[in-house]
User: Fold these one by one.
Assistant:
Number 1:
Amino acid sequence: MTEPAPNVIEVAKGDMYREADLWDAQSRHLADCAFQADHLAVEAYDVIVFNEFLAEYNEVTRVFARLCRQGGTVTRGIAQTLRIVADTYEAADDHIRTHYDRL
């Protein structure tokens, strides 16, 4: 099995860092959605006529906000994992380069 060319590995690491940035950006968007959804709940005294639907509506907003927060956590984790993998490749490359430079 042949090894990939060094420039291919460099491109892959760069792609991982760019993808991690995208996942972080999505995490921020999800956090913003969660924040906004947290403020969508309606108090009973605000809409007396629709009290029968109020509990269900508020539950939906709570669930939506919770799912957005969970999504934000997961997307941050994906970004972190991509960076760890790219950093691991970088460290391995540096180690190999150092080893061969001594020869």
Note: The chain has a mean pLDDT of 86.
Number 2:
Amino acid sequence: MALADLGGARITLAINLELSHGRHGAAARVELFERAGKQVARVGLRGWVDDVAAGRFDRAVSDLAARHVDGLILDCSRLRHVDPRSVPRLTRAVAPFTARPLGLAVLGLSPRLRERLHWAHGGDDDRAVPASPDPAPAAGEREWAS
């Protein structure tokens, strides 16, 4: 089973998390899937990630790791900004999934953020992942980092 291929999987948990408040806040949608006896989590990260948001993201992803989730799909297509000081915390949060049976797939990062975050890349960013309830970003909208 390819990590991003969730066809036939059933959602066993879905929750929206507010990671930080304000005009430049951040949020995540966590969906836990089960397919063929394996658990896969898809986390859609959006907004502006500062240190507070990175800390809350770390706690949420640590909870998934503690539940022995077999793989993590991190959808960053709606990520707008990452504070450079939060990069180490974000990287440590997803690191345990690189050793899991299904691993880590990071989708939707611009080349600049992919380079900055040094995350394992799960393949082609255009690979199909089941649609999330959030609308796709408007044409021309891209994330950036200062």
Note: The first strand starts at residue 10 and ends at 20.
Number 3:
Amino acid sequence: MKTRGDYAFTFTMLGCLSVVAGIACILLSYANTKARQSGGHDVSSAAYFSIFFTPVGVGLVFLRRIAAVLLSFPLAVLALWMIVASLFTVPFPWWLANIAFGILLLFPSWATWRGWSELR
């Protein structure tokens, strides 16, 4: 039997991972400035991902419902798109990996659904 607080740790860990992803996007964007100025690849748009990931991660650490929805809904859409599209367009051995990754991306949505009562 599940008790109150079982999903709080899950949301806290998802929040920490989101904050780390936001920091990594900022560092990637900063580390690319010299390569971009010398004509290399421009990955400065990674900074836009940090604008999304960092506040959502902080919201998840503090167990906010809006942060859980902002993380789980886009990941669920991406997961369902990967699962359905890979069945029709990806060759056999690779669609298994796409389906497995799509199922993994559905985890935050499942945690949001099950732990909704623990969020504020």
Note: The chain is about 75% helix and 0% strand.
